[in-house]
C-alpha cells in the first residue's frame, strides 16, 4: 500500500498505542530500579521465511518478484512471498523476517522506519540511482529482523536487488550494511561521506580534546554546553556511519559514545545537571537513541561496552524525563517548542527501553512525553513568530511518524503548511516575529521548516508550497543560510509519480487571514478574558498580488499573546515587492510597538500592554480590490482600527483610525520600519535601494521624522548574510504630538504605500479635504471617499467607497442604492460594482478568513447577493463632483521634523573634530582643575579637547568607538576605549597608549541577534575586595563578560543570560566587602555577576534592559534600578544570593538613558531618565514621579547641570533645558544630531554634534 494523500486523509484516526509484543529472545528484562542489560543480538535473516514488501506499483512489484526469484535461486529456499505495504503495520509494527523495498513515498511500512529514523530513505537519500541496504535487528521488539532495500527510484532499487542477491551465502542472510550514494548526497555528508585516515585522525584528536574538556560541575553553563556538544558529535558521527556504511565513521561514533558513557557513568549527578541545563533543548535525543538501536548490533562494541553505553543512555533519558519544561507542563494545553523537543526525545528513548528491555521506569517516561502530544489542544503552536510556529508542527509530525499515528499528520499538516505559506512572500522570504531574523538566517530552508512544506506538497498536491520553496532556493536571496538544502536528510522530500513534481500553482486569494486556534484562544482567555470572540481573531494576514516574483506582498500580525511574544497586533510585519524587502520586522528582543510598523499610544506618560488578540472585522478578496480591517480594542485608552485597501498590489491605501475612549494627554505615533536610505520631501517618505524604491505618502495632519538604525542594520543585514541592495535601515515616525484629548475624539493616519523599479514608483497622491484622497498611477486614478454616500442614483451606508477607472468598491455596507434601486443585506458586505456594465456582487466581509471542512479543505463562501444595475461611470463622477472641494489640500511647511538650519543663539562653537562622532566623555585630570573633553569617532579615533576647544592629543584605536570611560585606582587615572573592533584600548590622560587587549571574537561569542557590535561596556569593580586591585569588567555584544586586571590581562571570563550587554554598574550590593556587577542585557532577565558566577533575577515580563544604576540605602547595601525596553523602570535588592524585585514604574517608552544618584542637594537621590515616549522623567528613590517633562522627541541624553537643573538632548538636534522641578528653561534646535552632552562644575556646558562640531554655553 502507498502512503498517499488519500489514505492519510481518509484512513486516519486510529491512535496507535505502543505495542510491547511478547517477551522473548530479543528482549532483556530490566527490574524496576536496575540498570538494564544489553539485549540479545542476532542479525541473521531466515530467507526461507522472509516476506518481501514492495510498493504497490507494477514496476516495483515486478522488481519484488525478481528479488524473490533471485533469493530462491541463491539461497536454495522456496520463492518468498511478495506482499504490498499494509497501513495497519505502519501503526502496529511487524514481526518476522522481512525485506522492505522502496522509499518513504511508496511504502507505508518503510515510512514507519523513516519516522523512527531507522531508514531515512526518500527522494533525496540515497539520491538518483543510489541505494542503501541495512539490516535492522528486531526493530519493534516483536521478534524477527528487517532488511531495508532503500532507493528513491527504480534504477537504484534494481541495483540494490542485485547487490543483495550477490551477498547471499546460504539460507540465512548475515548483517547487511551497504550504501551507494549519489554524488550530491555524498557531498553533503561530513568529509564528502568518506572517513579517510587524515579525516579520522583529525576528528579523533578533536574528540579527545572535547571529551578531555568535560568537567563534572553543577550549574556552570559553559561546562554543560561542552557535554551537549559531545551529544551532537555522537549524533553526527553515528548518522554518518548509518548513511554511508563507512567504518571510519563507525570508529568515530564508537569513540565519542564510549567517552560520553565513561563521563556520565563516573559522574551521574553532575552529568544529569548538565543535561538539564536550559541550553539543552533535547534536539539530539531522538537521533541518539535511534542510531544506537540500529548500530548496537554491528559487533563493534563488546558486551561490556554495550553495558556501559546502556547505563549512560539510561541516565541520559532519566535526565530527559526531568526536563523542567516537561515537569511544568499541564496535562492539556497548547504546546510550544520548549515542551515538544524534549517530549519527542523522551518518547524515542522510552520506546527503545520498553521494546527491548521492559524497563518499568520507561513506561512513565513514555507517558510523560506522549502527554505533550496527546494533551496538545492546538493544531500548530502556542508560539508567536514565523519560525517558531513551524517548530511544533515539525515535531508533531515526527511524533506521529515515530509512533505510527497517522492522525497526527492529518490534524496538523495542512493548517500548518497553509499558515507557513501565508508567512512566505513571493521572494521565498519568511516574515513574522518571534526568533525570525529579518534577513538571511531564518527562513524556508532553516531549522527544518522545509519538512512541513515538503510533506504538504507530497500529501496534498498543492503546488503553492513547492513554488514558495523554489523561490527561496532560486530567487534574489538564494545566498541565505539554508541548512535544509545543504543537508536535506529526513525532510520528507517525495518526488515520485504520486507526489510531484507539482504543476503550476494557481494564484491564491489576494488577501487571506489565518485564525487563532480554539485551543490557544481558550488557554489564554482562561486567565485573561477577551472581548474578542475566537471566530473574530486572526493570527497572520497576508495580501499577495498574484505569485509573480515582482508582485507585492504585505503581511499583518494579529496575535500578541504567544511565547516569544511580540506586541505587534495590527502591525505590518513585512512588505516586499520588485524583488526587494522594504518593510521588515524585529526579533523578540524588540517586541514593543515602538519597534514594529504600527501605531504607538502614550497616554498620560504611560504605555500599556496590548491584549492578546486583534479583532478581524473584514478580510475579503472581491473583483476589483482586496480589503482588510482589523482592530486592537480598548488599548491604553483607545480603539485602533487599521484598514488596508489594494486594487492589484500597485499601491496599498492604509488607514489608521484611533478613537479616544478616555480623557487624557495622548502622544500617538505611527511607525514604519523601512529598509533603504530614507528621505523626506513634502508629504512623501522615500526609501531607496539599488534599482528599486518604496514611497509612503502621508495624507493627514501628522508630522514626519526619520532616524537611522545603525546597530540593527549592521547586525542583521550586513554581517553573516549581507542584504545586497540597501545601505541603511530607516525608521519613519508619523506623529500627532502629545496634547489633551477627550473621549470621543478621533486621530488618524492616511497613507499610500507603493514601490517600483528604479528611483520613482510613478505614483502621485492628493488629499481633498477631510473625506477624499486621490491616487494616480500612470493614466489611471482612484478616489477614496470616506463615510456614507447620499445621492439619488448612488448611495450607501458603507464605511468607505473606492472609485476606480472601471469599478466601485463599497466596504462595510448593509444597504446600497444603485441607479435608484435599493438593496439591503442581512450582514455587512463588501460590494463590487462594475462601472462599465452595472453588474454587482456583495460578499461576506470575512470571506477570506481561512476555515476548513471535515476533510481538511479550505472553505471560501461566494456572494451573499448579486445582480445588475444601470449604474455607470457618470454616476460615480457626479458623486465626486458634488463632494470634492475646489482644490486639493497643500502640505504644511512644518510637516517634516528635522535638525535645525542654524546654530542656536547663546551657543558658541568651540571646535570641529573631523569624522562622525559616536561617543563622548568628560574627565578632570588630577591636580589640573580643568576638564578634558574626550571624543570618539566612527573611523576609530579619540580626540582630547580643552575647555576652550584646543586639541591636546589624538589617538588611533581599532574600529568605531562605542564607549569612552575614565577609571581611577591608587591615584592612577586610566581612560578605556571600547571599540566595535573587539579591542579594549587603555590610554593615559596625556593620550599615551598603556595597553591594548583583543577580546575573543569567535562566532560563538558574537551571536548575530541584537543591536550591539563589539565591546560595549567597561566598568571598574573591586570584585576581590577594596583592599585588592580592581578589575576592569568588559562586556560584549553577546553576553560574554571578561575580567581584566589593571594591566589588561584577562583574569576571568563567563557567560551571562542572554544576548548583548547594554550597560553595567559595580558596587557592593550584598555587603560582603566585594563588588558585584548588575548587568543590563538585551534579553531577558536582570543579572548579577557575583564572584565569577552569574545570578539571574525573576523573569521580567518581556525582553530587555537598556540601562542600570544604583541608589544608596540608609539601611544597608545599595539597591539597583533598571531601565527596560518594556516601558518601565524597576528596582531590585540583592540579598542572600538572589535578586529581589522592588517597585516598578511605567515611564511611557523604552528607556534610552538612565542615571541614579544625588545631583542637587535640595532634591536628594533621584533617577533621571529619557524615553522613546518623548519624555524626560525624574523619579524619587521610591519610584514616585518627581516630574515628567514633554520634550517632543526621543530623549537620548539627560544630564544634571551644576546650576540646579537638567539638559535633555533629543533626536533631530533638539536640546531642552529644565529646572529642578522639570519646568522648561530653554529650547534649542541644533543643525545636526547631538552625539553627547557634557557638563563639569565651574565650566561651560558642552554639546557635541554628530558631525564633530562642539558648542559651549
From TrEMBL:
Chain coiled-coil ranges: none
Protein known as: Uncharacterized protein
Matches recorded under PROSITE patterns: TAT
InterPro entries, per database record: PQQ_b-propeller_rpt, Quino_amine_DH_bsu, TAT_signal
